[in-house]
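Pasting as-is:
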Amino acid sequence: MQDLLELQNEITNCVKCPRLVNHCREVATTKRRMYMNLPYWGKPVPSFGDTEARILLLGLAPAAHGANRTGRMFTGDRSGDWVYKTLYKYGYAKHGFSSSIYDGQKLYYVYITGAIHCAPPLNKPTLQELSNCKSYLVRELQLLKRLKVIIALGGIAFKTCMSLASHLPSPKPKFGHNLKYKLWQDKWLIASYHPSQQNTQTGRLTEEMFGQVFQSAQTLLS
């Protein structure tokens, strides 16, 4: 879809947030020792996936030495390993890994984006930076015509979706793993713990729990 391609090009060239732009470039210059001989993307990371997506996977932001290095959402770090392994298990990915933009990975009926597209220092974007990037998400929601389910990975992604909802049910939806809400007439929101190492290594999020989220999505789609 040409409009989505044009939007991703706009995202990649975005300079709305000088702090984030500078941080991405600095990380790409200094690098991590284990990646010292590898090129870094070092700029806003575009969304990735199927333009006919039924499911939107919304994360927080690119990791400094993950997507900010590889140039693809959830690629090059442990969180991404969980994401693509699970997408493959449920038939949404060509293979169960994502290592670079040249690895031949392809998604089926899934589109991956972020609340923001630049890696923030300490993984903590400001409210203004989140606001600056929100318009891109709004446009993606408008352009993904077949979209039915949004999976919000983590509290910030969940709050970002809540801020875009056409109406909020009463009582106000709360963040919790595998909780489902219909915030739009034609779309569902599923909350999920983020597959960060902080969650996966402590057992707060298990592979079975993460898989349950996609099982819920499939049920809603059917």
